[in-house]
Amino acid sequence: MNYRAEYRQYLALVLLMLLATSGNAQTTTLATSKFTPQEGEYILKDFHFQSGETLPELRMHYMTLGKPLRDAGGRVTNAVLLLHGTGGSGRQFLAPQFADGLFGPGQLLDADRYYLILVDNVGHGKSSKPSDGMHARFPQYDYDDMVRAQYDLLTQGLGVNHLRLILGTSMGCMHSWVWGETYPDFMDALMPLACLPVQIAGRNRIGRKLQMDAIRNDPAWKGGDYAMEPQQALRAVLSLQLLSGTPPLLLQKNYPTRDAADKYVDDYITSGLGKLDANDLLYRVNASRNYDP
Fold it and tell me: Most CB contacts within 10 A, which of 5, 102, 110, 263?
């Protein structure tokens, strides 16, 4: 099989799908594809973080499609790990724009051929996160911690000792580079989409700092021990995410008048405020602080 040609086709298709689903993961509701995954969670016991903090139990939620295949030596040969972006979850890969173009019979990630693993990373989805109850006392995780939790889930929870491919978008893209640095022999290939293997700086870091400062400087945040969400901080964060995470030409096309644009902003903010937790946001954005593979 010509894997080089296959992955060139794969990259082109995935990039088109990413464009089709562009938008803020926090406030976008994705339709579910025709695929029904197996869903579960695994508890990592006595998990030690880079910060020196420890959790007696770290919950990792996941979904799978297909079944693992092993060679004569017991090595898994068909496992594919899909890693989501900041604010997303493994479920985003079940969107029709993605799954229906990749997971079907004869498609590039045919679920009858591959064992597809969709993980909710630490701080996201149904995995352990500050809003579960610890708030700002939750360990200050970083990308190295998140990747090690993925590794422990695969090896201890799912019995996967090798990956055919890791595909990651945005934060998941950065995680794929960390995988390559930390566990270079664990996978055959990496497909990092929408990131670089360099320290976060420039506009990216500026945007993250502005979001973190907006949360920490809102008196209603109360050091993370708030009874009610700090509304002004969340409004500022949503505004920054909207400007940095949406394509200008698409917005011009969809909201071509002043009134349409104003209504979109109001609806976007109102919808987003009901779905966000300030501590979860702060931790997610801050997790990239040590990234520099």
Answer: 102
